[in-house]
Amino acid sequence: MKSIQIGQRTIGPEQPPFIIAELSGNHSQNLTTAMKMLEAAAKAGAHAIKLQTYTADSMTLDVQKPGFVIEEQDSLWHGEKLHALYQRAATPYEWHAQLFAKARQLGMEAFSSPFDEQAVDFLDSLDVPCFKIASFELTDIPLIRKAASKGKPLIISTGMASLAEIEEAVTTAKAAGCQDIILLKCTSTYPAEAANTNLLTIPHMRDAFGVQVGLSDHTGGIGAAVASVALGATVIEKHFVLDRNAGGVDAAFSLEPQELAALVMESKRAWQAMGQVVYGGSQAEEKAKQYRRSIYVSADIQAGDILGKHNLRIVRPAFGLAPKHWDSVLGKTAKTALPKGTPLSWEFIE
Fold this sequence. Notes:
This protein is of the alpha/beta class.
């Protein structure tokens, strides 16, 4: 699987997972809060921050008709009008340049999800290193074609998408000139349950499309995200908030700074732990082999004594004969005197 360059970061199996902190609307349209989020994400070790680039009018229509109000009883946003929700969650366009500059100053990459073709052009004018296509926009083929035409990597979330829909999106992106594509396994519920996350899709998706695959995770905590690394995830995206108790449109399923720091650390550990198929112990374990068991003299032995359970024992360390020789030495005769604590060797046996 080839590596992909996003800004100054190399993304691929040979690198620790690329951790993206998604600000979404958790800044509550307060620029000071947004700046503090960037500082906290950088301190936690995130490799990138991501925004969402849209206006309420570019997302939906300002109408009260069925479908334009969230009716699902179990939704975090039950009863909200779509237009009003997007208006409340949007990141002002005039913030983007400041936030991107701040992120780069802090050593992070910064990019966004465009939700219409004008947003693609706007983000491209800010020289973003890649584009992220949200799950709900995976079927917006004109949007994918537009983003892919800019010659930058595409990260595409696949929540709800069938294999055929993913194939159409990937084929469209490649036909438009984008060869650097990363798919993200995603469950489009907010929050998502671990039981509905289906991480085993990650290696299947990677094999099906021949591209890197990561995880856009809406579950609570970091367990699912860390587990995804063992299945080959090279990118992990989590929503981020300074304080869940302080609110924010996505606060309920977002990580706080200390949790993000734990994700960065534990996902890297998981990646390091994968290694290769190894038997016989690693080089680092070589010294530990001395603390295996072996056959030792457990009571003083004189030349001509018979060896048995009364004067031999299998104990640590491992400088004597291996325990597998126990039955072979019982009943044998000692050639020479052997004090207690002597590691038994064939040269001491008649």
